[in-house]
Amino acid sequence: MSKNFNRQVTEGIEATVEEDYLRGLTIFLDTYGNDEMPALQTGKSMQGLSYFGLCVALVRKEYKHAIDLCRRAIDLEFYNADHYANLGRVYLAMGNRKKALETVEAGLKLNVNHERLRAVRRMIGIRERPAVPFLDRSNPINVSLGQARHAKKVADLEKKIPKRGR
User: Fold this and answer.
1) Is residue 152 domain-shared with residue 99, that is, in the same domain?
2) For residues 102 and 106, what is the distance between their CA atoms, to the nearest angstrom?
3) How confident is the model at residue 38, as a pLDDT?
4) Which of 26, 60, 100, 101 is the right S-S partner for 92, CB 3.0 to 4.6 Å?
5) Which of the four pLDDT bands, split at 50, 70 and 90, describes residue 6?
6) pLDDT averaged over the chain?
7) How far apart are CA 36 and CA 14, in angstroms?
8) The whole model's pTM is what?
9) Same structural domain for residues 69 and 136?
10) How far apart are CA 118 and CA 108, in angstroms?
11) Rounded distance, CA 15 to CA 18, Å?
């Protein structure tokens, strides 16, 4: 039972890492069952929780359940940076960049060189400072100047890319 269970959790994790979230979710549902909070039998089952949460978020769009699974994984294995990366991706999927950034930064404090955390950090992106710093970011002047600055950057990038057929 335990070897089969561990193998299934490993398969679910591998499917999730390979971005086959539907297959990962199917494997995790077979492994953990449909419980809101699955019983944890082994260390491997703790490792799979946040991956299960990521699959739930990306396939079913059940963000609250996904966050609960990822948070439980972090509570049980706070030192595992993968859990922070998965929770950050869940927050990003639901459109909460601020929480995603906070989660990823907390994970990076534990492991600065963790590649998956760094990849999620790049996905989040970095906002530029407002064009007029003493005005609010949503002020129409900042919005207009920010759009113009972005359009100029895009135009400059297009100039650097060689055109085909010339």
Assistant:
1) no
2) 6
3) 64
4) 100
5) confident
6) 87
7) 22
8) 0.75
9) no
10) 8
11) 5
